[in-house]
Amino acid sequence: MTAFPDDLLELLQVPGVSGYERRVVEHLRARLPDGVAATVDALDNLTVTYGRGAPHVLLIVHTDEVGFVVSGVRPDGALYLTAIGHWDLAALGGTQVDVHSSDGVVPGVVITVPPHLDRGLAGRGAWQEGDQVVVDVGSDDAAATAALGVRVLDPVTLARRTAVLPGGTWVARGLDNRFGCTLLLRLARRLAASPPARGRVTLAWASQEEVGFRGPKALAYAQRFDAVLAIDAYPADRRPGARLASDAVRQGLGPVLRGVDLTGVGSSRFVAGLQRLAAAEGLPLQAAYAQGHNQASVFLPTHAAALDLPIAYLHSGVESVHPADFHAAEALLWAFVSQADPEVTWS
Amino acid sequence: MTRSVAWTVPVELAELLALPGVSGYEDPVRDYLLERVQAFGDPVADAMGNLRVTLGDHGPRILIVAHMDEIGLVVSGIDEDGSVRFEKVGTIDDRLLAGRHVTLHTRTGALAGVIGAVPPHHGGSAGANPATLAIDVGAASAAEVAAFGVRVLDSVSFDKFPRVMHGTRLNCRAVDDRVGCALVLWACRYAAGRDLGARITFAWSVQEEVGLRGAQGLAHGGERYDVIVPVDACASTDGPNHPRRLACFPLGAGPVLRMIDHGSFASPKLAAWLSALAERHGLPLQAGVTGGETDGVPLQVTGAHMVPLTIAMRYVHSLAETCDLRDVDHARQLLERLIDEAQWVPLATR
After folding, report:
1. What are the structural domains of chain B?
2. What is the mean pLDDT of chain A?
3. Is B45 exposed, middle or buried (0-12, 13-18, 19+ CB in 10 A)?
4. B83 within 8 A of A237, measured Cβ to Cβ
5. Hey, what CATH class is A6-65+174-345 in?
6. Given pLDDT bands bounded at 50, 70 and 90, which one contains residue B128?
7. HEC profile for B30-45?
8. Cβ distance A163 to A169 under 8 Å?
9. In the predicted model, what is the mean pLDDT of residues A63-80?
10. Tell me, what's the ipTM?
11. Which of B116, B148, B240 sits opposite A78 (nearest CB)?
12. pLDDT digit string (tens) for A146-177?
């Protein structure tokens, strides 16, 4: 089994619910190599550029994760949480959560009604009230909750658990898209030592992807790029009886080029060029349609594609990635940006 | 006793919480307890796995019992694609399965796994048929799963992460009933070496969560008791959004004499005696009605005074069972006072 890489494991410990990515940005910026100035825009998009001239390539990942925000403190001291990003709220009962208050982490649990006492409440899930989730932080009234430092608008994450499965896959909440953040951080170090032979490569750690690509949109308005490659997660779920578009994608067989998804059709030339590059480098690569969206699609008009890692159980507490896919993606990204002329990939 | 000071989880309770012990697979818990109680007396384990040790040789016959088992899963099959199928052991809300970390206990060791969850934006839902759920161990084939040592009938426990909320509120999987196991262990240690006015049996039962089977074994085992005190969890409705009409025992307001539940009516005579004992010693105590059953159900009908001494608990049978450490400490003290004054417990003939 391959242990979690330290850089990925460290980053997984940093909370970064959409709109609250600042700590992730600070963590990444502190680890960028010296010599090239990084910029952080008004939406907390972190970018750094290596090389000069044309073509201008953007590699983009997102720093945010799905989570929650405290939307209210009840008279009984419990919290209402509003989901940030897609969640299956019905599956959250009995889940341990971390409230990230200004005073530190406050532990909490999503309430349940025990089966011993179920009198119909559990039908909907006692922990759900409309679109909100009820969380117990151990206090008995609103004043006690306030004394814990909990405030409305504090971000909340699932309590972080990591594991390495016997088959080798890494498991953690927030792998989407901290693996991408880590890949780009590694790329930054290599680019700092070996800048692009031709043109520029901008690396972007974007905010608020999970809530409508808001960070990427701000980047798209700010600059034009000749080619954009988004690195993100591909839903590769394994569940008996499930019928997903991703059935053909398997973990451990390489990253996935998503040529088509709900945001449209990617640049077929760019996709073909990346496939040629992977073949030339002897790197495994899968290709598939995805029932989802990718942030490269907001960069119009340009050559856009998405290079994903197959992730099982997206937006749950047990997102998983295969290390072989991670390392293959790392190699392919480096092969792409270190070409003598990256433009051959899409032209 | 205030909540301004953060309580720490007693070491033995933390150790007991960490041990796996799905119903029918309680060996790790029993081994842990056996190692400790050997210093106090001559422990006996019956064929089902119930463990007991008796101290004192005269006076009323008292049984103090907690159950070692926890709800969990058992491997029921392995699909060709490497998915590990499971069945539930004990009462578990189907919606609390997907997306959880689990540990498979194989003959060759413990293995990490997860119960898969299809993302909500791809049609996943906790309301889906639980038969479509499976454990993922990162394998791509049944042969790979077999190579890991996973076999049908291996037990699977939910992973446990004990945390204390707001200073005193312990939450973790298997607080029900490792807190009882710890309390009985501490009571046994307290009684050891004392001049007891009663013959007190300290017992840890198996298979409570699947029909009180261990306690049935104890009841049929031939030993008879005058007084039986199961130490267990008490599902409380004092939490947010709970129906207050049934079992509202505020956490932190004292342990609970569980007078009526789905399986038994406790002994008013013994309850009155325990209440007076608590009052004399300034210990908070609650009493009332809740759901579920305890080991006291099959044991009471052997003809004993029976009152469960229980710990008010929120979110029972979830991964975040929550109790108040102050209640645990008060229960510990009450059990010690019971041992001190055991010769005076009510008997049928008194």
Report:
1. 11-70+173-344 (3.40.630.10), 72-158 (2.40.30.40)
2. 91
3. middle
4. no
5. alpha beta
6. low
7. HHHHHHHHCCCCCCEE
8. no
9. 96
10. 0.87
11. B240
12. 999 999 999 999 999 999 999 999 999 999 99
Six token digits for residue A284: 């495994």
Of A314, A295, A313, A315, the C-alpha closest to A305 is A295
Count of other CB atoms within 10 angstroms of residue A315? 26
The string of pLDDT tens digits covering residues A292-334 is: 778 888 888 788 999 999 999 999 999 999 999 999 999 999 9
Interface of A with B in 110-139 (CB under 8 A): 110-117, 119, 121-122, 125-127, 129, 134, 136-139
Q: Which residue has the tokens 């973990």?
A: A251
Token pair belonging to A63: 């720093």
pLDDT at position B272: 97
Which pair of tokens denotes residue B326? 């102050």
Across the range A195-211, mean pLDDT stands at 95
φ, ψ for residue B327 (rounded to 5)?
-65, -40
Q: Yes or no: is domain A68-159 CATH 3.40.50.1820?
A: no
Distance (Å, rounded) from C-alpha A144 to C-alpha B212? Answer: 39
Of A45, A5, A34, nearest to A208 by C-alpha is A45
Query: Using a CB-CB distance cutoff of 8 angstroms, which residues of chain A are in contact with residue B136?
Result: 165, 169, 238, 312-313, 320
- B144 chain-A contacts, CB cut-off 8 A: 167
- Can you give the pTM of this predicted structure? 0.91
Which residue of B82, B91, B112 is in closest CB contact with A164?
B112
The pLDDT value recorded for residue A65 is 97
Task: State whether residue B311 is helix, strand or coil.
Answer: strand
